[in-house]
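Subgroup meeting minutes
Present: P.N., E.W., G.H.
Scribe: E.W.

1. P.N. recapped why we're keeping a running log of single-chain structure predictions: easier to compare across weeks, and new members can see raw inputs and outputs side by side.
2. G.H. added today's entry (204 aa).
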Amino acid sequence: MPRHNSSARSSSSGKGLARRSVASLAARMMAEDGIVDYGFAKRKAAKTLGVGDGETLPTNDEIEVELRAYQSLFQEDEQRERLRELRRTALEVMQLLADFHPYLTGAVLDGTAGRYSGVEIDLYADSTKDVEISLLSRDISYESSEPQHHGHDTPETQLHLDWNDIPVTLSIHPLVNERQHKRESPNRPTRAHASAVATLIAQT
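Output recorded in log:
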């Protein structure tokens, strides 16, 4: 008769429970406290629960499942109205900056945006100065910052502005990079142009 390792099963079960607990708490923190970074949310949740790093940390997708469930249970009406408001704001900004090939990204696109979320838009321009001049010519105030993370898709600059009390972040990329984005699933796009955003608004 083969021997069954009950201690191994128990350990695996315990890790799975801890993983789900971290995902659930991270999702609640994102929904209630305005945390937008998945990595920060999961680390904070793990620390709160006294769980170490490693196999017990959930993936971003696992947290997103919990986040959508939490919003559906506790914030459904509020979240739906907020999401509609954010998408309308995004469309207004995208139409204003149509010359810079705007694409909506982030939580406002994927539908997980909540009460503290802002709008994230990618722009493609020959120069960041072109975007800044366009904003200044319309008397739109903004602040600039350098990207915190670096990678193949890192923007050159980020511009931050308020649009009717809604925070908007414009990530400026070189124009030549517009066609160089990684391929994405048509069922789950990571960016959307203005017409696609208009369709989303109509659907919600």
